[in-house]
Specification:
heterodimer; A: 365 residues; mainly alpha; 77% helix; disordered N terminus; B: 40 residues; elongated
């Protein structure tokens, strides 16, 4: 996760007047996020109520999927008018706030146990994924920096990693925009395929959550992919993804040093400051809330309230996931970069699935 | 978002800090029972 408000929106708000103006500009998009999220929840409840009252056996389709599908339909048919765009872009803000609040559902011991396993698996998966992405990028004749962006995006943290890496390796805007579009489209595809594969392999909630957190690119999509499986799977997916996000600085730093050594990017001065700048600060918020929950600062009803606040924040996030995914954007640069991204994703999904199977068996998730 | 675009890094308070601040404020309000219990 990077520190910008979205791929297309500045994070910095200047002064009280600027703050007020920015806030007003967010309202239409926020209302759209809420409307799409509520529509998803309404459809899930309506179908559930109807099938139950008529004794019809029908699989429960979570509001998550409805919200994303409605968002995708709007974004790829009528499009998102400009007045809504700033508010829609806040989906990443709600995601981060939701993750911090979700920390209340973890005891710090669980975070350290699962986070430690995640860290080990992430390190293995990262090494394999980055090497593989560069190999196929070369095989498909992609520009090296576009390959680097796709590799960072698919191996670490999707869009945010691309945004973090772009200035560090001095990549073109065009390459970065394309890599973002490809990663978003691939993320949308994984939302539909991961739960199906998880169910067909009878993965446990923990194993599936860990897999989704390790393999799905964007934090929003990883959270949604977990939620589509189960509540418990979502918790684990968020934790695994957060661990992955925490490594973003190290990978971007490695790429920055590599490209600087080839004279194609500026040299990195203070490496510790660079790492801190790229470190996703919301991880610290997540750990703090988890610590407070571990210290029994909150009562049980209060923990329920915090968990529900997190759900409401995720509802807005999932609406945004669909609304910001524009599939038409992919047609602009041809099929090869998308093919590289897709092959890389399949490779990463298979590698991480193997790792999760191994961890489930030997490390006792 | 109709057209994703990449942006350069900026100075100032990051989105993460705002998100963490909001989450901690909400946690504090819940802890002090200053907001009613939240339903889903």
């Amino acid at each position: 996760m990077a520190t910008s408000l979205s791929p297309s929106r500045p994070a910095v708000l200047a002064g009280p007047a600027g703050l007020a103006r920015d806030f007003v500009a967010l309202i239409p998009g926020l209302l759209l996020l809420a409307a799409v999220g509520f529509a998803g929840k309404f459809i899930e409840q309506s179908i559930g109520g109807y099938t139950k009252s008529h004794h019809i056996t029908f699989p429960n389709i979570e509001y998550v999927l409805w919200a994303i599908v409605i968002g995708l339909a709007i974004a790829n048919t009528v499009g998102i008018p400009r007045v809504f765009q700033a508010g829609v872009a806040t989906y990443e803000f709600w995601l981060k706030a939701g993750i911090v609040l979700l920390g209340s559902r973890f005891l710090l011991g669980d975070v350290l146990h699962l986070g430690g396993i995640s860290l080990l698996l992430v390190a293995i998966a990262l090494t394999l994924s980055l090497s593989f992405m560069h190999l196929i990028g070369r095989a498909f004749g992609l520009k090296p920096k576009l390959t680097s962006l796709l590799a960072v995006g698919s191996a670490i943290c999707g869009v945010s990693a691309i945004i973090a890496a772009k200035p560090a390796i001095d990549a073109d805007d065009e390459d970065a925009s394309y890599a973002i579009a490809a990663i978003l489209a691939l993320g949308a595809i994984s939302l539909f395929t991961f739960p199906l594969i998880g169910h067909s392999l009878h993965l446990s909630d923990k194993a599936y959550g860990l897999w989704a957190g390790l393999a799905v690119d964007n934090t929003a999509e990883a959270t949604a992919a977990g939620a589509l499986y189960s509540d418990a799977a979502q918790k684990v997916a968020v934790l695994a993804k957060t661990t992955r996000n925490a490594l973003i600085g190290f990978i971007v730093l490695a790429y920055a040093i590599y490209w600087a050594s080839r004279g194609q990017a500026e040299a990195v001065g203070n490496k510790a400051a660079f790492l801190w700048r790229k470190f996703p600060k919301f991880v610290l918020g997540f750990l703090l809330i988890s610590l407070l929950a571990t210290l029994a600062i909150f009562t049980k009803p209060q923990l329920t309230s915090l968990a529900n606040l997190s759900r409401w924040a995720f509802l807005l996030t999932f609406a945004g996931v669909g609304l910001r995914t524009n599939l038409r954007e992919l047609g602009k640069q041809g099929w090869r970069p998308f093919a590289v991204g897709a092959i890389g994703e399949i490779f990463i999904a298979l590698v991480t699935l193997g790792l999760v199977y191994g961890a489930d068996r030997y490390l006792h998730l | 978002m109709s057209e994703p675009t990449a942006v350069a890094p900026r100075r100032g308070i990051s989105l993460d800090v705002y998100a963490v601040s909001l989450a901690l404020l909400l946690a504090l309000l819940v802890r002090l029972n200053l907001i009613p219990s939240i339903k889903w």
